[in-house]
Write a structure and sequence with these properties.
About 40% of the residues lie in helices and about 25% in strands. The protein has about 260 residues and is α/β, with parallel strands linked by helices. The radius of gyration is 17 Å and the shape is globular.
């Protein structure tokens, strides 16, 4: 049995908003995907922004075989108390956990804690990242074993990594984000990072688009109007029809295989 720690990136308040809207939290999505891939996992969960018992987790980080840090609605450059707590906890994790998988926000926190840099992106992924292409380094990395060289994936991000930590390497890119995945080692910790979400379904992404509908049109200005947004949802619905669940989640499966 492998012992896995899931780190929740959203605050308790935001998770409450998700639950009220009938949307699974990112931790719930991760649990569901992990259990689909393997039955031999013991899973624990911590929320660095909201939990009061964070010190007790710091003391037992070394007991976990791996850690997965999921997505969030936060922006790392806002430097709020909640974000500072997450960065500090990540630094502890990078000293005590041998294997870390950072997904979207999780990758951005890992990069920031290790001396890299994240900035607001010029363009956003809303529900889907198209034509992610694995580079020559990625093709040799166990993260992408059996993965097609070019693929689409669920994704939702306004920010991107612009500076990888020392000795890190980019593994994949697309037209929106130069760094769609990466690998670096800090201390004795191996960090695999993904800017996209293999653990989340496209159906949930559509729910998130609807949940954020007004902000996406009026504040983020990602869509011109309601019709533009609906056309985008239709595109994602077509992607659902051609998506193979096992292939979509290969990165999770490959990471679990590499735990030692």
């Amino acid at each position: 049995m492998k012992k896995i720690l899931i780190v929740e990136g959203n605050t308790a308040e935001e998770n409450g908003n998700f639950t009220e809207a009938g949307i699974k939290t990112h931790t719930e999505s991760l649990r569901e995907s992990l259990k689909y891939i393997s039955k031999d996992l013991v899973i624990d969960v911590v929320n660095p922004s909201s939990d009061q018992n964070i010190d007790s987790f710091n003391d037992k980080l070394h007991t976990f075989d791996g850690l997965i840090w999921g997505g969030s609605s936060l922006n790392i450059y806002n430097d709020t108390p909640e974000i500072k707590k997450q960065i500090e906890f990540m630094k502890n994790c990078q000293n005590k956990v041998k294997n870390i998988l950072g997904i979207c926000w999780g990758m951005q926190v890992a990069v920031t804690a290790a001396g890299g840099q994240v900035k607001k992106a010029n363009t956003s992924h809303v529900g889907i990242a198209k034509e992610i292409e694995i580079n020559e380094y990625g093709l040799k990395h166990p993260l992408y074993k059996d993965k097609e060289k070019k693929f689409n994936s669920p994704a939702f991000n306004y920010d991107e990594v612009v500076k990888i930590p020392e000795n890190g390497i980019c593994l994949a890119s697309n037209k929106i984000n130069k760094i769609q995945s990466l690998y670096f080692q800090i201390n004795k910790t191996r960090v695999w990072g993904l800017q996209y979400h293999p653990e989340i379904t496209y159906e949930k992404m559509i729910s998130l688009i609807n949940f954020r509908r007004k902000k996406l049109i009026e504040y983020r200005k990602v869509f011109k109007n309601e019709n533009d947004l609906e056309n985008h949802i239709s595109f994602i619905e077509k992607e659902i029809q051609v998506t193979v669940k096992e292939k979509k989640m290969l990165e999770l499966k490959n990471w679990l295989k590499e735990l030692n």
